Amino acid sequence: MRKRKNMRKYLILMIAIIAIAVSFIGCEAGIVTLGPPKIVTTTPNNVSTGANVNGTITATFDEAMDATTITTSTFTVSKGGVDLDGAVTYDEPNKKAIFAPSAILEYSTEYQATVTTGVKTNTNIEMVENKVWSFTTTAEGIGPDPVLLGTAGNYVMLAKTAISTIPASVITGDVGLSPAAKSYLTGFSQTDATGYATSPQVTGFLYAADMSPPTSSNLTTAVEDMLLAYNDAASRITPDILNHGAGEIGGQTLAPGLYKWTSSVTITGSDVTINGGANDTWIFQIDNNLSIDANLKVTLSGGAHAKNIVWQVAGEDVTMGTGSHFEGIVLSIKQITMNTGASINGKLLAQTQIALDQATVTDVAL
Questions:
Q1: For 241, phi and psi rounded to 5 degrees?
Q2: Which ranges of 88-214 does DSSP label H, i.e. alpha helix?
Q3: Tell me, what CATH number does 95's domain have?
Q4: Average pLDDT over all residues of the chain
Q5: Number of structural domains, the chain?
Q6: 270-289: string of b/e by CB count within 10 Å (b at 16+)?
Q7: Mean pLDDT value of segment 4-9
Q8: Binning pLDDT at 50, 70 and 90, where does residue 365 land?
Q9: Which among 28, 59, 213, 239 is least surrounded, fewest beta carbons within 10 Å?
Q10: Same domain, residue pair 78 and 158
Q11: CA 294/CA 189 separation, integer angstroms
């Protein structure tokens, strides 16, 4: 009897070991053994308030999905039962579906987002039931309508020709480069994976145009959206303030509004303060270069947020001096340079290149 019990225990142990081994081999072979996919987080959260009118709507899954099933048919956003126009992309390493509306949303308005059972995992397993959530947008503040970034807002840095860093920079957020290839991401010591790369300097992922789908098409859309955002910011007419401080804004306090300079803008001598409420907005149209001197700062007061500040720069250079600090979203028609120890809370979106020297770039969520 004892021998039979011992044999039974032995068989149970062997079955458990075999099951663990099969599971391990499956994982090593890239076989996903999870069940139906689930959405674990959404942005905005369900029944939340205060959502940005120019932000994206996202759903993050608990396992890798088939990007071809995440479309405008399976991921919709509606107001009063009417679907909005927008672009849908899938961010593979983050397991995130992203809906970018084609126009800014209405203030203080409730919207509903839906992801249907038509979405599937990369092993062809459908979601069991539709995921539906609602959110309400923020109240209107003082200042111009926000600039719609679209899918360009998914990146803390986005450029067309090159992005370089002199180590060690500290970057929080995703980095995108297109139409240039990954060889033009330099100084990152990146490790390549399928469709993306990682770097010890980046809390996030690096993407380039020659990486595996859907990365290439996602970046094409993002760059198009970056150009649209730049043109939107540049085309705003009837500024509230023209040529403030003759282009020298060091020591100034800037209230919400649309500002335009027909010259370069420099920050020298003293810090500049951007003062306003949490829902207020600023657009700074600059016809030439933008620069901030070493160790000076752009500071926020009164509840102002970097996500609501746009610097549209039509000159050759945006230059942030050694040890300087900046706030806001920079839309540059050419290049952006951050010198040694410079930092920014915001986004760097350049139509040519971005160069960092031991800089700190921290994303702001829209």
A1: -135, 130
A2: none
A3: 2.60.40.1220
A4: 93
A5: 2
A6: ebbbbebbebbbbbbbbbbb
A7: 52
A8: confident
A9: 28
A10: no
A11: 28
CA dist 295 and 365 (Å) reads 26
pLDDT value at 20 more than 70: no
User: Of the candidates 78, 110, 137, which is a domain's last residue?
Assistant: 137
Q: Can you give the pTM of this predicted structure?
A: 0.89
> Is 166 a domain residue?
yes
> Domain for residue 143, yes or no?
no
**Kind of pairing between the strands at 335-338 and 353-357:** parallel
67 is a domain residue: yes
β partners of residue 356: 165, 338
Strands 309-313 and 325-332: parallel
CA distance 165 to 151: 24
Give residue-wise pLDDT tens across range 207-264: 999 999 999 999 999 999 999 999 999 999 999 999 999 999 999 999 999 999 999 9
**CA distances, 160 to each of 38, 120, 319 (Å):** 35, 32, 18
Domain termination residue (choose one: 102, 137, 172): 137
361 φ/ψ angles, rounded to the nearest 5 degrees: -125, 115
**Res 355 pLDDT > 90:** yes
Q: pLDDT at position 83, please? A: 98
Residue 33 is classified by DSSP as -
- Residue 133 above 70 pLDDT? yes
Residue 31: predicted pLDDT: 46
Report residue 39: phi and psi, to 5°: -90, 120
Would you mind telling me the total number of residues written for the chain in this entry?
A: 366
| pLDDT-based confidence at residue 23 (cuts at 50, 70, 90) | very low
Residues 223 and 156 in one domain: yes
Type of residue numbered 341: G
Tokens of 264: 């370069």
| 17 falls within a domain | no
Do 275 and 213 lie in one domain? The reply is: yes
Note whether 202 and 317 are same-domain residues.
Answer: yes
> Which structural domain range is residue 328 located in?
150-362
Tokens matching residue 34: 């999870």
Q: Mean of the pLDDT values across residues 67-94?
A: 97
